[in-house]
Write a structure and sequence with these properties.
Four copies of one chain form a homotetramer.
Chain A (H helix, E strand, L loop, with lengths): L2 E11 H5 L6 H6 L13 E5 L7 E5 L7 H9 L1 E9 L15 E3 L2 E8 L3 H9 L4 H4 L7 H11 L6 H17 L8 E7 L4 E7 L8 E3 L16 E3 L10 E3 L4 E6 L2 E6 L4
Pfam family, one (chains A, B, C, D): GATase_4
GO molecular function, one term (chains A, B, C, D): transferase activity
Keywords (chains A, B, C, D): Glutamine amidotransferase, Transferase
């Protein structure tokens, strides 16, 4: 399991959300509060959109809590849309290629959860990835495979449908390998403009998913009711800042507005 | 703060003590039970005596819990005397040079604790290190400085006296910089034959220190009453396996026998 | 391209061959003499057989020339059979999982060369790997895939035949993707008792492959004419110490004796 | 020895200078042309000025030539003034803290060369560092010590004088330890607005130092005769783009104009 946060709104320094919150993502790397695994020390990553079409990507295998490069970058880089993730490996090796977020062109994906029986299912799940995308598979994780399976289902044209179809096919593969391990996910996806997030599990025990408006420097600059943060858990204790996304639902963020919709695998 | 374990006895594979205990050191890297900091993920190190006069030294900056090299080495290497340490940085940077154990010729030292006001005291503490040893200072940590200060006080001829004198001088330096931060240590030292361990603090709140005989493959091969393990906390729940060293005391292990003695700075 | 060396003979410290030769493997990491790429700084690995059935494996992503852990291990560990490798990536990412040697149970493989058009061929080559072995694929390199394809062809029972069949199938896959990039290999394989090495390319331009008896501490202890080293290039300038394996040939080492045989893909 | 480049001029993406030149710094990490050591693979670093008073700092211990984070950052980050450095260790360990550039508040320093007899001189050179700065010494390298000695000599008020005085004192210390190893440097220093560079050695064999105007996207946007690049060696083969700084001289860059002046230790 892992922890993640996505931001979209007025330009802020990454440190505003990643370090300066009461329960910031970086503090969650050392001690998460809503996760099955307290410590998320098996690497981290950030993806941010700047002046280019494709986002920047910075991932490393050290724990986030003591990484001086991450600290400095977060103090320098401003962005209107960024993803950040701290990892607790569920079995695959600790390498930069297995760190989230995963990127393809202007698309970025990050994930908390797992595909059950991954080592048994892996090859069949990878067979869902079309050759066009398979050449860009750089790691061995279930999360990257899920992203690429969704890309192969047409994610770039139909993000929600493609994710739904990819998960549906993964569930079929899992079913052939027994049912002792569930599929679970809270995940976020973006093309650099719109963000989609998903909360789903095969056993009605999905990891948590929130959206809200924590007390960053963006808050005062945003119009009333605008949402700028989506996260695996709240980054502060002010409950009025956060809304939980229900089990089996997705979320679409665009221009500060969020819509929540039922999300089930195809 | 950190966690550590020292072994001396019949040859065992390192994994026997480092991985296969109920509360092994490696599991303590992710979740220690007796430490002020639960997570000890800022690097690790092992030093082991084999067929050469000087020990082997293997240190890395990744968390111990997922390091495949450590796992493989611990499965291959047998030793009659080894030290192992998992680190939680108290401020100095995460680099191999700051990972314990520290080695000088056939001597090895590892430490849990800290010199209070380290950044204020650092230069003066380093001035305790004689030129002969200073050229081998590879890192910037308080622990390595303490070891080298003790070497400069004649550690190789008089380990307990030199450690006592070095700590005494460090306490004097600390006193000149205020008293808001204590000196605390549980530490172990060896020349490859005898092990000394120390439990001391300036505020009567020393980190824990134990010796005993956990259920390893060495246990059956050792004579009755022989001790083979010294550790910052027990590696199993069998209380009959462990003895606590009192506050302000040292321990000398030789040939399976332990003697405990009062230890105060000179 | 990469550099590698395999040793089998009387127990020696690894440093004897890896560091103390005139043109040792570690010096080749900084400046190889017979390689298309001079610098082999994209990680390294060693596998050594000790007291257990399975070998130890130590791999890291830093250049070998300055790695203190490798230096210390090589000074401590004695072995009767070990493999060592320094890597120059041909495109896949620098991670421990992509470092050679690769291990499966008691088997170890390392490789210099490449599968041409790897990113185009990768998926089809991976499809040669049977499910039994695919679950152990930890990286994304062509070299590991080739090893696993050969395992799937029955490497454990018929090493030369399986390697021949695996390469034959790889060449068929490559042919379907054009012929602008060749298949090239010099590689070594062992089960812990016997060593096989292979020199082959699809364009009659195979990387070099040598066997011999360099001036290590093993030399005096070995019977006349016994060979203890197989390498991608000689580790000293004494030509009487080395024999070149011809293009399109394999080598079998057992008990100090070497036989050379024609090697072609099935 | 090491390689470095400093840029100041119109905002450019870092990749423009670091990757896209004919002989870019990153290609120099694998194969430098004007350096005593061809390979500069013992880590790298960049410091860049953006929207904050203090620069960003990104340093890592892997070779620059294959680092995906550096590649991505260089593609995203634009800056009007940045330093970049690839390291070949002259003896001190490979750690982030020993990677250049070194930063203090808004000041940044990087260095090619060495203090002769460093391990003998180290302690005395460190004694040149005033307590105010010593607390920020994070590594063990001669280069960082020289920077901090110069800070202690008043670098922030009088950069050239302080550097001259610091080097003078270092030379005195070196003289007491024999003369078999020279002092050599080509170095660059900035406060974020002005750049100073220095070329000096104790044996009239200083490392090379150039300034010029290579073919980047900045060239067309700069006024005639404006200089935007200072480097340890040219990044392209167009000799009209580059001027060599003579032995024993310094350089001051401000607003696109360069002045060269004699530089000798005090």
């Amino acid at each position: 399991m892992c922890r993640w946060v996505a931001y979209a709104g007025p330009d802020i320094f990454l440190e505003d959300l990643l370090f300066e919150q009461q329960h910031s993502l970086i503090s969650q790397s050392l001690r998460a509060r809503h996760a099955s695994q307290v410590t998320n020390g098996d690497g981290f990553g950030i993806a941010w959109y700047g002046q280019r079409n494709r986002p920047g990507l910075f991932r490393d295998i050290l724990p986030a809590w003591n990484d001086e490069n991450l600290r400095s970058l977060a103090a320098q880089v401003q962005s209107r849309l960024f993803f950040a993730h701290v990892r607790a490996s569920t079995g695959t090796s600790v390498s930069r290629s297995n760190c989230h977020p995963f990127q393809f062109q202007n698309w970025v994906f990050m994930h908390n959860g797992k595909i059950g029986h991954w080592q048994d299912c892996r090859r069949e799940v990878e067979s869902l990835i079309s050759p066009e995308f398979y050449r860009y598979r750089a790691g061995t994780s279930d999360s990257e495979a899920l992203f690429m399976a969704a890309l192969s289902e047409g994610l770039q044209d139909d993000p929600v449908g493609a994710m739904s179809r990819a998960i549906g096919k993964v569930l079929q593969i899992m079913a052939a390998h027994g049912d002792s391990e569930p599929f679970r996910m809270s995940a976020a996806l973006t093309d650099g403009t719109v963000i989609w997030a998903f909360r789903f599990s095969s056993d009605q025990a999905s990891p948590s998913l929130y959206y809200g408006n924590p007390d960053t420097h963006a808050k005062d600059r945003a119009a009333d009711g605008q949402v700028n943060t989506i996260a695996s858990e709240p980054s502060d204790d002010d409950e009025s800042n956060w809304h939980s996304v229900p089990e089996g639902h997705g979320l679409r963020w665009s221009g500060g507005r969020v819509s929540v919709f039922p999300f089930v695998p195809a």
